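Why predict the complex rather than its parts? Because the way molecules touch one another can change local conformation, and only a joint prediction can capture that. The input here totals 331 residues.
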Amino acid sequence: MSEIESRFEEELGARDMPDPREAQAPHHEHPSAKEYIRIGVILAVLTALEVATYYVDVGGALVPTLIGLSVVKFALVVMWFMHLKFDSPTYARFFMMGLAGAATLYLVVLIIFGIFPVE
Amino acid sequence: MADLAISPEHGAAGAQDEHATSTGLPNTKIAMWVFLASECMLFGALISTYVLYRGSSQTGPYPDDVFDIPYTSVSSFVLLASSLTMVLALASAQKHDVARMRLWLLTTAMLGLTFVGGQVYEFTLFYDEGLSITTNLFGTTFYVLTGFHGVHVTVGILMLLSLVSFSAADRLPHDAAFPVEMVGLYWHFVDIVWIVIFTVVYLIPTPSPAPA
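Output of the joint prediction:
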């Protein structure tokens, strides 16, 4: 280990800081082009299923099916194409905060406008 | 410590962000994710408003009168395909294959332009059928939501074309993967917003209008 590396290790230890070389590196390699194409095909199939619900009567299962399919598509894009599955969990935490904020906002709007009446 | 932060030994950090942080993550990437989180709030508000006023219009045209699901489905496939070409551009950038990276970036921009063109055409058709932003609650919430999304796609196209022109002018760093990844994050976010809009606005049937 070179002198500069030893000094670096000491400073990190003394300040209880994460090692940027570890935090910086993806937890796993990003997917290959083949994997991206496989995910793209899955997304296309899921979209085709969504569109199929417009032509096929699925009765009361329509809304849950559509919401389920869009949640799966959303997750696939975020996890694979935006690499949250492979990158530092810190990024995922920031994004989840945004999603939680949006969900809270949605609930607050519903409450304020009386869909869930306030006593 | 400062000399350590930018030393060549720590090139992975240096290549992406010259300022090492206490998190060890590049500031630019953290900033992009925080920005996308704030965008979730923006679109959350717009989608909430659309859902809240769904089926509340007292006068037509109503969604069933104007929506053309097969047409919008093609637009959705186009935007989805653009997300795939975007990650292929990133994969090429990571392999330092500049020619292929430019090709995929241009393809992504063209697919984005096709989507925006389709949206402008759709808006024109709706307007001709009597649906303007002031016609009824459906028109107001629909145009504001999808219009904001269209503006985001347009900004994404400008970012993609800027990347291509910077690359052509040799103004991108040797490792162009990082800027491509940042633009890609924004582009995929625009795609996931459309995934939600397509389901909530177009595919989930709107209840019949309340009698006046």
